[in-house]
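Progress report, Aim 2. The chain analyzed during this reporting quarter is listed below.
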Amino acid sequence: MIWSVAEAKQRLSELLRSAEKEPQTIKHRSRPIAVVMALKVFEEFEAWRAQRKPRSVGEAFAELRSLAAETGYRLELPQRRDRRDGFSTSGR
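Predicted structure tokens for the chain:
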């Protein structure tokens, strides 16, 4: 369920009971700002986040190259065109 901040304040007990069943979103001016969830779900998320190894950009590109090679994907590059040099005074 989606709650406004005012609803969440007025019906906190109901919000907490609902959060035990499924995560509850709280919005402020139509923009999601928070999620209330059961402690067990949060602990599972924290455990997943703690074991997740951060990847470097190089590792991410290596995985992308590997996936592209497996599927036979080839990036088509447009033909290169020269363009006017905005820093040069000779081209004006």
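The longest helix spans residues 57-71. The domain at 2-37 is CATH 3.40.1620.10 (YefM-like fold). These observations will guide the mutagenesis work planned for the next reporting period.
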